[in-house]
Design brief:
The complex is a heterodimer of chains A (337) and B (294). By secondary structure, chain A is an all-alpha fold. Chain A folds into 2 domains: 47 residues, no CATH class; 247 residues, MetI-like fold. Chain A is built from 15 helices and no strands. The longest helix of chain A has 38 residues. In chain B, helix 3 packs parallel to helix 6, helix 5 runs antiparallel to helix 6 and helix 10 packs antiparallel against helix 12. Chain B is built from 12 helices and no strands. By secondary structure, chain B is an all-alpha fold. Classes of the chains: A mainly alpha (337), B mainly alpha (294). Chains A and B meet through helix 1, helix 6, helix 7, helix 9 and helix 11 of A and helix 4, helix 5, helix 10, helix 11 and helix 12 of B.
Chain lengths: 337, 294
């Protein structure tokens, strides 16, 4: 157990380090000059300004030295200074992360809470109307582009029916709740501001539906397939033969086993939701890491892009690591290999 | 669609049921045929766009701006008075081209790398596959976005950026497929006859493991079209005023009353992605009857 744990953990750390190198190389080797993107045409035509700018940000050093500096700073928890916001990248990340975590978590809960029951119902009532309906929902979820789904949702529920608030985490005239956890839901509840809580929740509805659509489709499909397979197993037949009620057969016998592939998929789904918010956040003006990364990419803000890509890769690796650990718990055979 | 969906177990026990020949055919080939038909239709549209489009796609005419759909302008006109229907037809060229080319090139490179890794074994395999894992831990959109931004926008640049993040899943799949085949007797026989590794890999192993690759390629084109359209939507894809579906949604997304400008290009993406999903699922069921969807 310990050996498996340490080897997986070491591998994860090595991968995280190597990922910084990849990001660094891509950011440095592709054409496209951050100086030009930052200074604008007028200042960029003055060689003195360009030189001073390069020296200030260490852009005039050889590549390996730039990378070494980056790694050394990283060891001290310093991701460099964002060229576009002029603040430490870590401070930016700290500011923008809570919005993304809140949105991603709600979307994750939503996709599980709807996807699993829908998949089970589809499998139990195979070829019934609910099966067709579940297939339709997951097909739309998997096939429609996020940015378009967001447009349709905003147009219908915000523009036409006006039953949903527009983009952003809260209405522009309102003040955010005092920061405790960074989650507006939790913070406004802690502060006892119930009306604000209502606004915050309402603002979360459309973005989280849009964000979870693809994941919901995947979860529904996987649950249905896994449930169908489980329902054909001998022990399910035995349970039925014993005269158990159908409900007990499904919930107590089939479901726990059918959920194993879903649980392992859930980890990856959560990672994808947290790291895949760029489109949703850009359209809903959601002040999270996705929107931040998008702006950094447009401004060719290399320290920010590197920091963000690193953060996303580490989140992904971390969740994969957790999934690996959970394999060991769910399926003890893994350890014997 | 992702490789997760492609790999999801869809096995279920058969329940004896009597079906007519037509029903059986529909069950076996219906979905794939529908998907194939949608794709063929869009390819024809893309090729024949200049013949089919009632107006030039970039024709600006402010006197007819924001006209709702009518018999004259089927899908209405946008803010600059351009015909949405004509732009949509021309948009098929960019979107289909980008999606198909990125996936084919990505698949070719990934398959080659994964195949070589599995075939070579030892250190080379370890190094190549760790590199693949490394590339897989980046969220594709983020990495493609960063590269596209740094290279400057343009259809080809964006496709190149996507290519960088597109090959790893094919490398992984190809490796696992070749590993299965490597131990087979016919491979050994080919070696004994004296064929070189390149020939064995391409002429013997590849044809025997092409099925799952074709499924992933088909399912993946839809995904690539969505990602390309998404990058265009963010302003990191095509150069305006190129008609492209993602860019069209972006141009018209602020218009709430004039819903048609962004709705129809989105529906176009949806239909073509569904087409590729149907075809991919259909091919998978056909190649692997055990996994057939009921």
């Amino acid at each position: 157990m310990l050996r498996y744990l340490t080897s997986r953990t070491l591998a994860t750390i090595v991968m995280a380090l190597l990922s910084t190198l990849i990001v660094f190389l891509i950011a440095s080797l592709v054409p496209g000059d951050p100086v030009l993107a930052q200074l604008g045409d007028l200042a960029a035509s003055n060689p003195e300004i360009v030189k001073a700018y390069r020296a200030k940000w260490g852009l005039d050093l050889p590549l390996y030295e730039q990378y070494w500096i980056f790694l050394k700073n990283l060891a001290n928890g310093d991701l460099g200074i964002s060229i576009s916001t002029q603040r430490p990248v870590l401070a930016d990340i700290r500011q923008f992360a809570p919005a993304t975590v809140e949105l991603g978590t709600i979307a994750f809960i939503l996709s599980m809470a709807i996807g699993i029951p829908l998949g089970v119902a589809a499998a139990v009532g195979r070829d019934s109307w609910i099966d067709h309906w579940a297939r339709f929902v997951s097909l739309i979820g998997v096939s429609s582009p996020v940015f378009w789904l967001a447009f349709i949702m905003l147009t219908i529920f915000y523009g036409w029916l006006q039953i949903m608030p527009g983009p952003g985490r809260i209405d522009p005239i309102e003040l955010p709740p005092p920061t405790v956890t960074g989650s507006f839901l939790v913070d406004s509840a802690l502060a006892g501001k119930w009306e604000l809580l209502h606004t915050v929740a309402a603002h979360l509805v459309l973005p989280s539906i849009v964000l979870c659509a693809a994941t919901l489709g995947l979860i529904t499909r996987t649950t249905r397939a896994s449930m169908l397979e489980t329902l054909g197993q001998d022990y399910v037949r035995v349970a039925r033969a014993k005269g158990l009620r159908e409900r007990a057969v499904i919930v107590a016998h089939a479901l726990p086993n059918a959920l194993i592939p879903v649980v392992t998929l859930a980890g990856l789904a959560y990672a994808n939701l947290l790291t895949g918010t760029v489109m949703t956040e850009t359209i809903f003006s959601w002040p999270g890491l996705g929107l931040y990364t998008f702006r950094a990419a447009l401004a060719l803000d290399i320290p920010s892009i590197m920091g963000m890509t690193l953060v996303f890769a580490v989140v992904y690796l971390l969740i994969n690591w957790l999934v690996d650990m959970s394999y060991a718990v769910l399926d003890p055979r893994v350890l014997k290999r | 669609m992702s490789e997760l969906a492609a790999a999801a177990p869809v096995a279920a026990p058969a329940e004896p049921r009597r079906l007519t020949a037509a029903q059986r055919w529909r069950r076996r080939y219906g979905l794939a045929t529908l998907g194939g038909a949608i794709i063929v239709l869009w390819i024809i549209v893309a090729i024949a766009a200049p013949l089919l489009a009632p107006y030039p796609p970039d024709l600006v005419d402010v006197t007819r701006r924001l006209k709702p759909p009518s018999s004259e302008y089927w899908f209405g006109t946008d803010m600059l008075g351009r015909d949405v229907f004509s732009r949509l037809l021309f948009g098929a060229r960019v979107s289909l081209f980008a999606g198909i080319v990125v996936v084919i090139l990505g698949a070719a490179f990934g398959t080659l790398l994964g195949g070589i890794a599995a075939y070579a074994g030892h250190r080379a395999e370890e190094a190549l596959m760790r590199f693949t894992d490394l590339m897989l831990c980046f969220p594709p959109i983020i990495l493609a976005m960063a590269i596209a931004a740094a290279m400057g926008i343009g259809t080809l640049n964006t496709m190149a950026a996507m290519l960088v993040v597109w090959w790893p899943k094919f490398a992984r799949l190809a490796r696992s497929l070749v590993l299965v085949q490597r131990g087979q007797e016919y491979v050994e026989a080919a070696h004994v006859i004296g064929y070189g590794p390149g020939r064995v890999l391409l002429k013997h192993i590849l044809p025997n493991s092409i099925g799952p690759l074709i499924v992933l390629v088909t399912l993946d084109v839809g995904h690539a079209i969505i990602v390309f359209a998404g990058l265009s939507f963010l302003g990191l894809g095509v150069v305006p005023p190129t008609p492209e579906w993602g860019a069209m949604v972006s141009e018209n997304r602020q218009l709430v009353e004039q819903w048609w400008g962004a709705t129809f290009p989105g529906l176009a993406i949806l239909s073509v992605v569904m087409g590729f999903n149907f075809l991919g699922d259909g091919i998978r069921d056909w190649l692997d009857p055990r996994a057939r969807r009921r």
